[in-house]
Amino acid sequence: MSCDANIMAGLLVSLLVCVLCSCFVATAKLPNIVFVLVDDWGFADVGFRNPAISSPNFDHLAKTGLVLNRHYVFKYCSPSRASFLTGRWPHHAHQWNLPQSDMAGTNLNMTMIPAKLKAAKYSTHMVGKWHQGFFDPRYLPINRGFDTSSGFLGGGEDHMTQEAECAIDYWKNDAPDPRNGTYDAYNYGDDLTDIMNNHNVNDPLFIYLPLHNVHAPLQAPDEWLNIYSVNSTCENRRTYQAMVSVADNVTGYLVQLLKKKGMWDNTIIIISADNGGAACGGSNYPLKGCKGSFFEGGVRALAFVNGGLLPESRRGESTDGFIHIADWYTTFCKLAGVDPDDSGTGKFPVDGLDVWPIITGENEKTQHEEIVLGYNFDNVYPSQGAIIVNNYKLVVGLQGHGCDSLMWSALDYPCSYGPEGPDCDPYCLYDIVNDPTEKKDLSKENPDMLKKLVERYNSYSKEPRDMQDQGYHSEDDIPKDPNACKYMADNGGYWRPWKNI
Ligand SMILES: *[C@@H]1O[C@H](CO)[C@@H](O)[C@H](O)[C@H]1NC(C)=O
Ligand SMILES: *[C@@H]1O[C@H](CO)[C@@H](O)[C@H](O)[C@H]1NC(C)=O
Ligand SMILES: *[C@@H]1O[C@H](CO)[C@@H](O)[C@H](O)[C@H]1NC(C)=O
Ligand SMILES: *[C@@H]1O[C@H](CO)[C@@H](O)[C@H](O)[C@H]1NC(C)=O
């Protein structure tokens, strides 16, 4: 061939490659994304870690999927969700747990992940617990990027009646949901059926399923209680076990629906706890502490990933890569081809990292060097904060009593506390990779490392205080409406936004 012919052949090949590529791009569908949060779920409260729990769906998903050994969250509900939905460290979104009558919510200037995914034409749905504010209708899920929402707006309620304090908290899209009076997880199953029936398979799908199980009050229908034998010494534990089994069933049901619709192969599903197991019910064995503390039992969540998009090489594996719940924001944006940037006036930029390389195994070192688990400028007791830098974790301030600093002595929670571990006053330092159960406080032994982490922690004091936690110094500072219950009683007996009433 002459030189010219060679060039021509080369051009033809590149042309062909280009055509094939653009063909591929045009037909490759954006992945379906499903995120399941199980409320107050203990690190050991799943069948594959504890034979006392019946959770066949979770076990299968974990055993044929990827277990996330180091998936970090906040120490309680609302901030973990804010962090997930906004992609920020908890103190950059907010660290408060909103009571029903709060006149506040997650910063409206922050673009939540469903709104980001809308830019890539995702169909976006949420079923379950919101807990991001609802006093002002602008805080509602459908006004923050969800096409549909069903479930409840506050942080907890009666599972059977949906009563929360003084009214019924049950909400669908933009109005009260009259289906109150049924075990909530059962209705969530029906909601998932509706979402999947109405879904056009040509659109990419995002489902956020923050289940109410296994949050207090501990309640389960008899048909689920009955799979466990009556426990005269710890009936709470039996109810809690049944509640995990219900969460397992609903999650398994959603997986079945995705498979039936032929969507599973192009789906990634993440299942995680929002924080550690709570006192009287859950077990975080062998970790120390529980919901409400920055010890590992409070913030290192039970989590795993599955779905057809997970590479074959990652199935049946686990990863030690450090992931924070805020990372999913950036990761999902990348998967959807959307720019994760959300900077602007009056708000911190997104903190999350794209952790997809950890999930695929392409690069497990694509992780934060530093994770801010919690930061409290004003050092209000208890539980001021915690930061992870590489293998080390600094826990700042007293974490509390009882379960908060409990050393779990047995896999199955024995219904009475084990020995209380030493608390942190003012600091504990742990090597959480070599001492995952936080038995050895290194703060005296390794003053250089202590100094380094304290400096890192204190560096956040330079951030504008009126932006951290949206300017509220403690939960007590958040305005609450003393007349909220009266508004609800006068307006049908359901919790609803009341700013404009
Ligand atoms: C859910 O529970 C019902 C009732 O026990 C059972 O028939 C069904 O197979 C379960 N579904 C899944 C996915 O586990
Ligand atoms: C939201 O942004 C607007 C315009 O930049 C600003 O005036 C407002 O104070 C911000 N609100 C919050 C809560 O940061
Ligand atoms: C009752 O619960 C305790 C604590 O979880 C457990 O150790 C014990 O085995 C249970 N007993 C029965 C009969 O299930
Ligand atoms: C649902 O809540 C409303 C409002 O409080 C109440 O009137 C109704 O009786 C409740 N329904 C059931 C089945 O409990």
CATH topology: Alkaline Phosphatase, subunit A
Low-confidence stretches: 1-27
Terminus-to-terminus distance = 82 Å
CATH superfamily: Alkaline Phosphatase, subunit A
What count of domains describes the coordinates?
1
Task: Give the proportion of residues in helices.
Answer: 25-40%
- Give the cofactors and ligands: 2-acetamido-2-deoxy-beta-D-glucopyranose
Spatial extent as radius of gyration: 23 Å
GO molecular function, one term: metal ion binding
Keywords: Calcium, Glycoprotein, Metal-binding, Signal
Protein name: Sulfatase N-terminal domain-containing protein
InterPro entries: Alkaline_phosphatase_core_sf, ARSB, Sulfatase_N
Features of the shown structure:
single chain, 501 residues, alpha/beta, Alkaline Phosphatase, subunit A, ten-stranded mixed β-sheet, four-stranded antiparallel β-sheet, 13 helices, 15% strand, disordered N terminus, binds 2-acetamido-2-deoxy-beta-D-glucopyranose, glycoprotein, ARSB, Sulfatase_N
